[in-house]
Design goal:
By secondary structure, the protein is α/β, with parallel strands linked by helices. The protein has helices at about 1-20, 30-35, 55-65, 135-140, 210, 305-310, 380-385, 405-415, 420-425; strands spanning about 40-45, 45-50, 70-80, 85, 95-100, 110, 125, 145-150, 155-160, 170-175, 180, 195-200, 220, 245, 255, 270, 280, 295, 315-320, 340-345, 365-370, 390-395, 430, 435-440, 455, 460-465. The strands form 6 sheets. Strands 1-2-3-5-7-8-10-12-13-14-16-18-19-20-21-22 form a 16-stranded mixed sheet, with no helix packed on it. Strands 4-6 form a two-stranded parallel sheet. Strands 9-11 form a two-stranded parallel ribbon. It is elongated, with a radius of gyration of 31 Å. The structure holds 2-acetamido-2-deoxy-beta-D-glucopyranose (2 copies). It comes from Photinus pyralis (Common eastern firefly). Keywords: Glycoprotein, Leucine-rich repeat, Repeat, Signal. This is LRRCT domain-containing protein.
């Protein structure tokens, strides 16, 4: 142990001196024909070697040319090859920092294939191959590995201690495998450093609670695109630093009480694309202090789940798109709406907006009501939010051209002063029933409609009613106003 440390120390000093004396200059690619069909480029930190569309024999040959030259191979990329087996000692005598074996039919990784590069390897990518299990024995000496990518393989289970030895690992991704089982001690050894874990695109039917419970350094957990049909209180116990949880595109029908109550640091929760009908009033208990992003789109929710959302006083981004919401209660946003900057209600079944429904949305910047069944948008609904709004989408609604809609014209004119181009391009129309034609909301013929025109005050950026009495002889304002008697 002491000797090993001394050697490591000596090596550190040597490489330090080496860096000072620019030993890097001696790093040089071998002659092109020596390693063909592989190719080599010099990069700042070492060589970048690429071998594509070739086989075991040519790769072995290239490796033997590179051996014993104290070269730093910063990247070794083997892609689209025929490399069913990674044999023992294939990289012996090489210093490889980032190794990629991608789309190469790899199904066997022999125990001694990677151990020789364990001291230097920080990234290993074996994505898009034919692995049916985690090659644990080959991984166990990779004591400096930070990132392990096993996406797009055929792994069907993660047995106990599958990653033991990878005690420095920070990112593990297993996206798009065929995982049905994760044993209780599957991640033992990863509990000190693991920050991101991707189990998305697998065949899990429940949260592998036991295995996850030791991962108290984990920040991001992705389990989207699985078959999870049920979650319950305690499922996420132990992951006390979790910042982001992805459960989109599963089979959840319900968000039960206290399902996430152990995740007090959670900032972002994705539940979109499930089949959620029911959100318990205590569904988000425990998330009050940190939750900012909540995605519930593409579910089957019938009303804004206000009781569950109340108390989420940090919530900024609420996405309820493509549900079956037909009705917004007056108090839909009371108790938590103050911090919301982004609200998406597009593709629902909303017919009416309640007069004071948006009153608590004091920070709202983006409001999406596209593709609903709204015919009227009363001015008083919007008045509460026109100060802060920068984007409103009310396209694809059966809007009737009426005087109430003039808030839009005023608001967008005000926005133009702020140089907001994105909104100006949106073509929002209403239907003038008497003429059987459409008008753009931006060019509503207010006088033809006999509307009492309200001017807007660009300084206070709020529309002010100039005309309140029916005498209507006093015509002031910034714009030509047609008086109505
Ligand atoms: C995978 O590699 C094969 C050659 O072995 C190639 O024909 C195929 O296009 C590659 N697939 C992808 C998705 O890159
Ligand atoms: C949407 O809700 C209505 C009742 O509000 C119901 O009749 C309808 O079946 C629901 N649609 C779906 C797809 O569940």
């Amino acid at each position: 142990m002491a000797r090993e440390r001394a050697v490591t120390w000596a090596w550190a000093v040597l490489s330090g001196l080496c860096a000072l004396a620019s030993c890097q200059v001696q790093q040089q690619c071998p002659a092109r024909q020596e390693i063909a069909p592989c190719s080599c480029q010099m990069k700042k930190n070492g060589l970048d070697i690429l071998c594509e569309f070739t086989d075991q024999q040519h790769i072995d040959n290239a490796m033997s040319v590179l051996k014993g030259k104290s070269l730093v191979i910063f990247y070794l990329k083997l892609r689209h090859n025929n490399l069913k087996k990674l044999p023992g000692f294939v990289f012996f005598g090489l210093d490889i920092r980032h190794l990629t074996i991608h789309n190469s039919s790899l199904s066997v990784v022999e125990e001694a294939s990677l151990s020789s590069i364990g001291k230097m390897l920080t990234q290993l990518d074996v994505s898009q191959n034919s692995l049916t299990s985690v090659p644990s024995a080959a991984y166990k000496n990779l004591h400096h590995l930070l990132i392990l990518n096993m996406n797009h393989n055929n792994i069907n289970s993660i047995p106990n201690r599958a990653f033991q030895g990878l005690d420095t690992l920070e990112i593990l991704t297993l996206y798009e495998n065929k995982i049905t089982t994760v044993e209780p001690d599957a991640f033992v050894g990863l509990e000190k450093r693991l920050k991101r874990l991707n189990l998305g695109g697998n065949e899990l039917t429940s949260v592998p609670q036991k295995s996850l419970s030791i991962l108290d350094t984990l920040k991001k957990l992705e389990m989207q695109e699985n078959q999870i049909s049920r979650i319950q209180e305690g499922d996420f116990e132990g992951m006390k630093n979790l910042d982001s949880l992805g459960l989109a595109h599963n089979k959840l029908r319900e968000v039960p009480a206290r399902a996430f109550s152990h995740l007090s640091q959670l900032n972002s929760l994705e539940l979109d694309g499930n089949n959620i009908v029911l959100v318990d009033p205590s569904a988000f208990a425990g998330l009050e202090e940190n939750l900012q992003y909540l995605r519930l789109g593409d579910n089957n929710i019938h009303t804004i789940p206000t009781p569950a959302l109340r108390g989420l006083h940090r919530l900024r981004h609420l996405d309820l798109r493509a549900n079956n919401i037909s009705y917004i209660a007056e108090d839909a946003f009371t108790g938590y709406g103050d911090s919301i900057t982004f609200l998406n209600l597009q593709k629902n079944d909303i017919k009416m907006l309640p007069a004071l429904g948006f009153e608590n949305l004091n920070s709202l910047e983006t409001l999406n009501l596209q593709n609903n069944k709204i015919m009227h948008i009363p001015e008083e609904v919007m008045e509460a939010v026109t100060d802060t709004l920068r984007v409103v989408d009310v396209t694809d609604n059966p809007l009737v051209c009426d005087c109430e809609l003039q808030w839009y014209k005023n608001w967008i004119r005000n926005l133009r002063d702020k140089d907001d181009e994105m909104m100006q391009k949106k073509r929002t129309v209403c239907i003038m029933t008497s003429e059987h034609r459409e008008y753009s909301l931006q060019s509503l013929p207010l006088d033809k409609m006999h509307c009492a025109v309200k001017a807007y005050d660009p300084i206070n950026s709020r529309s002010t009613s100039l005309l309140t009495s029916s005498f209507a002889t006093l015509c002031l304002g910034l714009y030509t106003v047609k008086c109505v008697i």
